[in-house]
Design goal:
CATH superfamily: PEBP-like
Number of helices: 2
Number of strands: 10
CATH topology: Phosphatidylethanolamine-binding Protein
Strand content: 25-35%
Number of domains: 1
Strand order of the largest sheet: 8-6-5-9-10
Shape: globular
Helix content: 10-25%
Length: 185
């Protein structure tokens, strides 16, 4: 039997690991760490945006993923528990993106079987940013979850309850963060 050089053997052993892509979330609506557009801002509570969810794309969904989920969360909201702006789960694992506006309450731009559950605005669908006027810019964290099973909840589930399932079923997750503030009035 011919012996392989050590480097060739190492390369052969590490090749499958290199082939596995890391889950990555991006948006053509905003860059990670950038200020979010007013079009994404909520329309209500003194905010005057268009309430349009961002375009999102992802790559590197791990093998064994049974469903995908997304949420948008503001940890800086003055509630003591943050604010859930968008919660959508049971997206098909083959999905690679969502168009801008996919978070509309009707869900018509989401794939069949997807569920948008209740945000902290009290209803399903995307609810944009609306930090208090004069606050420092808030962080809006969008997280993509690759899940090992579907989430057994419906559109009435709270963001916190869905979050429990997403974290318990997560194979991998990726995040991007946008910033948004409103001037003092």
């Amino acid at each position: 039997m011919k012996k392989l050089p050590v480097l060739t053997l190492l390369a052969a052993l590490l090749a499958p690991l290199a082939a596995q892509a890391e889950l990555k979330l991006t948006s053509n609506t905003f860059a990670n760490g950038a200020t979010l557009a007013q079009s994404m801002e909520f329309n209500g509570f003194g905010c005057t945006g268009d309430n349009i969810s961002p375009q999102l794309s992802w790559t590197g969904v791990p093998a064994g993923t049974k469903a995908l989920a997304l949420n948008m969360y503001d940890p800086d909201a003055p509630t003591g528990s943050g604010w859930w702006h968008w919660v959508v789960f049971n997206l098909p694992p083959t999905l690679e993106s969502l168009p801008s506006g996919a978070g509309e309450a009707s869900g018509t731009l989401l794939p069949a079987g997807s569920v948008q559950s209740v945000t902290d605005y009290g209803k399903p669908g995307y609810g944009g940013m609306c930090p208090p006027a004069g606050d420092k810019p808030h962080r809006y964290i969008i997280t993509l979850f690759a899940l090992k099973d579907v989430v057994p909840l419906d559109a009435k589930a709270s963001g916190a309850l869905v979050g429990y399932y997403l974290n318990s079923l997560a194979l991998e997750k990726a995040q991007i963060t946008g910033l948004f503030g409103r001037p003092a009035q």
